[in-house]
Amino acid sequence: MESPGIDAGLMQWLLERVRSGASPDAVLAAMVERGWDAAAAAAALETAMREHLAEHAREHGLPAPERVPCPVEMNGASVIDAGDRRVTVLANMLHPRVVVFGGVLADDECDALVAMGRERLRPSPVLDMETGVDAVHASRTSDGMFFRRGENALCERIERRLAALVDWPLENGEGLQLLRYGPGAEYRPHYDYFDPARPGSAKTLARGGQRVASVVMYLNTPERGGATTFPDARFEVAAVKGNAVFFAYDRPHPMTGSLHAGAPVVAGEKWVATKWLRVGRYD
Ligand SMILES: O=C(O)CCC(=O)C(=O)O
Ligand SMILES: [Fe+2]
């Protein structure tokens, strides 16, 4: 793959440096020293990195990585301006890619989402990736419903806020999903991406492409249990009203470590709103 302005010689030079483990900053500095404009150097390096990753994926029989939202850098800001609200960063992990946010929603916004959706709840289905049919399954014992994107002023406000928070186009988001877990209910370990090799995924993939990230917002604080768990990382996020967990997966593969679950609610109930982000426009 070549981009305008990057010839084969330069690509090779960049790839050699990337493969030898030089830091992006060091490569950029070397390019600027050779007379490159900083922005053009960064663009060329990004192209080289992309080619390097695609080649690695081909060699290992893996799906090629997609761009994913990157809400915060490591050791970056502790507070993010999400447009109409300042959100705190409580934890930030690179692998699996997980960010825990504090105060994404106000208490009254959580209560309003629950009030608006509760009459429309139905047993949550699981997509059968062989047949493409949604069906109720023992692995998922919550009740749920979907708001259409922009269905009402509150959904629209939250969608706008999330788009600003994770820096991802609003149009690439699915509508908010509301879930209620009663005592003992859970969502067993699963991936949120669609398996491209299975025939039942084709229909949903045709609309917006692959999912690349999820944001699970906690609408109440369960009495006990109901954490969101990441078994590969032996990590869990406690469900606290108004907080949210973001996680990203750059390809539909377990190597992302994005296996996660809604652990059983031990006492009380648990309400969440989930936002899934697609790689492309979800219309
Ligand atoms: O309830 C949770 O903590 C996780 C929800 C989830 O995994 C999902 O909605 O896909
Ligand atoms: Fe999930």
Automatic annotation (TrEMBL):
Gene3D superfamilies referenced in this protein's UniProt entry, alphabetically: q2cbj1_9rhob like domain (2.60.120.620)
Record's keyword terms, sorted: Dioxygenase, Iron, Metal-binding, Oxidoreductase, Vitamin C
Top-level taxonomic group: Bacteria
SMART domains, per database record: P4Hc
Record's keyword annotation contains Oxidoreductase: yes
Identification of the protein by name: 2OG-Fe(II) oxygenase
Keyword Signal among UniProt keywords: no
Co-factor(s): L-ascorbate
Species of origin: Luteimonas padinae
Domain Fe2OG dioxygenase residues, every copy: 172-279
